[in-house]
Amino acid sequence: MRWDAVGWGAVALLLFAAETLAPGAFMLWMGFAAAVVFVGVLVMPGTTLLVQVAAFVVLSFVSIQIYRRWFRKRARQSDHPLLNRRAEQIIGTVAPLEQAIVGGRGRIRVGDAFWVVEGPDLPVATAVRVVAVDGMTLKVQQA
Fold this sequence. Notes:
Largest sheet: 5 strands, mixed, barrel
Helix content: 40-55%
Shape: rod-shaped
Order of helices and strands: HHHHEEEEE
Radius of gyration: 27 Å
Structural class: alpha+beta
Distance between the termini: 77 Å
Number of helices: 4
Low-confidence stretches: none
Mean pLDDT: 89
């Protein structure tokens, strides 16, 4: 039994199993690299461990780059691109000021959340429109 071939086969299977437990397509491509090294060790007996590891590293890098440049670009586009970007979903919303904008900062309420806003100084209850987002701060202008 060739322990180096068995080892690469086990590494490939472990990487494939890890991909199923934590999907992200990263370990999948490293698993393909380990599988290629496994086949290479079977076809070319006597390959040194250093050459095997170097081949695995190079093949892993190449396969991940192929994934990133070829397959990732062709991924299906989301029909809800702002789903996890709550602040960006608010752009265009008009709401009254809960706290006056003084010194460029104030507060509005949108739904059940209060947001810090930046804009021109305005009194309480003035309707403002959200025009941009900077982190968790909303940029507003008078509506």
